Amino acid sequence: SGMDRPQTPDTAAGALRPPAPGACVVVVDAANGGRRLDKTLRQLCSQVPLGALMRLLRRGAVRLNGQRVAGDARLRPGDRIELPARLQEGAPSAPAHGPRLPRLRLPCLYQDDDLLVLDKPAGLACHPGTAQRQPSLIEQVQASLGPATVGHRAGLAQRLDAAVSGVLVVGKHAAALRALSAAVENGSCRKVYWALVRGIVRPLCGTIDVPLRVDDQPNGGLPRTLPDPQHGKPARTDYRVLSHQGDHSLCEVRLHTGRTHQIRAHMRHLGHALLGDPRYGDAGLNRYLQETYGLAQVALHAASVWLPHPADGRMRLFCAPLPPAMRRLLSPAPAAAQG
Predict the structure, then answer these.
(1) Is residue 203 reached through a cis peptide bond, with omega within 30 degrees of 0 on the bond before it?
(2) C-alpha distances in angstroms, 206 versus 152, 201, 251, 254?
(3) pLDDT in tens, 22-50
(4) Rounded percentage of the chain residues whose pLDDT exceeds 90
C-alpha cells in the first residue's frame, strides 16, 4: 500500500479519536506483530464473509490506530484495531443448539482495553449451570465482546454467588486475567461487602474465625455450609457495623478466606442471619420482607473492589450502589411495618 502507516498510540496519542459508539478495540500482541491487517481480521472475524470484511476495510469502517488503512498494512505490537459494532454482531454468540445470547445489557461501572467492571444483579449466575433459565454472566460477556475474545477469552477475576449483587471484575484477555488472579492470590485485591442482617449486632466490630464445612443435606436438599471446628476448612471473616435500622444492622464485611457461603454461614453462627437468605435465614421474615420491601434475594452486596490495574499496577477503586430493595430497608419503615 502507498498509504502512510498510521502511528501507534504511543507516538500519536494526541491524534487518536475516541472509538465509535459500540465499537470494539483489539490491541495487537507480540505474536501478531508483522502480520497483515486483512489476514488478522480473517482470523478474528472468521464468521464474517471475506467480501464483507474487505468492503468494511475499503469504507474505512475498520480503523488502525484511529485512522483508515489498507488491508495490506503490517501490524506492530501495541497497535489498536477498531472493529465496528455491526461486524461484532456477525459473531456467533452460541452453538446452534444453544440459547441465543443477547448483547450485554448489564450495568457497566468501568471499561478499558484490559478490564470490564460490572454491577452484577442478584439472581444471575456467574458461570453456566444446569438449573439456569438465562445465559450466565460470563456467557453474556464473551458474546458481547465478540471478536476481541477470539484466542483471548475474557474471564472472571473473582466470582459472586448467583444470589449476591455488586462489583464483578472481568479480565478481557489472558494477560489481564493472569495479573488480576495474581492480585487476588497475593492479597492486593481487596473486596468489601455490605450485608443487612437480622438483629442489633454486638460488638460493633469483630472477627469470626470459625472453620466451615459444606454439608450435603439429606433428601435432595440444597447443601449448606456449617461451622465445624474439628473437620471444617479454616475460614475468617471481619465485620464492622455501619448502621442500625429498626431491628436489623448494616455491616461492612471483608473476607480473609473464600469458603462457600462464608459470610452467610458466619453471620448466622454469630446469631445474625442475613435478611432474605433462603438457606440460613427465617422463612417467615423473608416472606414479609419480600412483600413489604421487594427483597427477593439475600441482602448481600459486593460494594467495592480495590485492585492494581493489570496494565500499570496503579490501585483503582470500583464501587457499586446498593440495589433498590436494600436501600428501601435502610429507609424509615413503611406504614405497613409499623406497630
Answers:
(1) yes
(2) 42, 10, 11, 11
(3) 445 566 767 678 888 888 877 666 556 77
(4) 36
Would you name the residues annotated as active-site residues? 161
Q: Largest Cα–Cα distance in the chain?
A: 82
Question: Could you give the CA distance from residue 79 to residue 145 in angstroms, rounded to a whole number?
Answer: 18
Q: What pLDDT digit, counting tens, does each position of 300-323 carry?
A: 999 989 899 999 998 888 888 889
* 8 Å CB contact between 272 and 201: yes
Going from the C-alpha of 94 to that of each of 33, 139, 183, the distances in angstroms are 30, 9, 31
Residue 257 CB neighbours (<10 A): 13
Element (H, E) at 165: strand 165-171
* Burial of residue 92 (number of CB atoms within 10 Å: 0-12, 13-18, 19+): exposed
Q: Does residue 43 sit in helix, strand or coil? A: helix
d(CA 271, CA 273): 6
Q: How far apart, in whole angstroms, are the C-alpha atoms of residue 269 and residue 207?
A: 12
Distance in angstroms (rounded) separating the CA atoms of residues 323 and 299: 9
**3-state class (DSSP) for residue 293:** helix
- Nearest CA among 278, 302, 303 for reference residue 290: 278
Which amino acid appears at position 137 of this protein? L
**C-alpha grid cell for residue 306?**
480495590
Please report, as a single letter, which amino acid is at residue 158.
Answer: Q
Give the residue ranges of DSSP H helices in 83-159: 85-88, 137-145
d(CA 60, CA 229): 65
